[in-house]
């Protein structure tokens, strides 16, 4: 691999659009079982909030040194206040569409002895009016950026992603998508789509050999008019499919502690490298290295430019 392109990354401008979430962690000790029900009693000793979803993608891109703008949906609630505060601390330029009737997506996790015991989700699908407002925020920002990322967590912010992709294509921007669900026709016309192994199986079915995976991946890529398709395969590494064929790198993680947010780190690294002019194959290798670092950390975390370099 070539040296870390620090100077080019500092000039890179990345626009992230998608499902903004707050990840809330309650850490504690478990010393007994509740007399009320057969469940552990957690004595909470520490609380921590972290950016999740598209906000975590943006935070990761900033940590690598890029200039980052985030567009997403939040409510008028305590979680939205925390999201805005954390985005400000991270150095992300936030353009958040706010609605008092739309709660901020919140994932609350309870951990005992650093093992996740429970997760509670608060979320609602946005209204068509909110989605229209989101698109109105995105449109004028496109010309000010080098690449656009759509981070889809199926929470509804990208329910009309087809129209957003068309806007970005009209500006000639590279478009990276982290997909959800089995309907990949929604992402037609993007530049790169990054399904994980499970998501790829949802899209094309189970494969029984590398040649079968390659055949199905290339068929999907051609059908969706993609420049590249990157399948992240956990302990099996990553495989990139382009007109030139397939390119694979093995996983680099020495110890997997928590995979939460690893896909966000990979997506952010790909976007930053692309905005810095790095080819897809080399971008994949940087993303693979970043993913290997972040799974050794607890919860949704970041990889800094220093760690990656």
Automatic annotation (TrEMBL):
Highest taxon in the source lineage: Bacteria
Ranges for domain Carbohydrate kinase PfkB: 12-302
Keyword Transferase: yes
Any GO MF annotation of the entry: phosphotransferase activity, alcohol group as acceptor
GO annotation, cellular component aspect: cytosol
One Pfam family from the record: PfkB
Keywords: Kinase, Transferase
Database matches in InterPro entries: PfkB_dom (IPR011611), RfaE_dom_I (IPR011913), Ribokinase-like (IPR029056)
Protein name per the record: D-glycero-beta-D-manno-heptose-7-phosphate kinase
Record organism: Zwartia hollandica
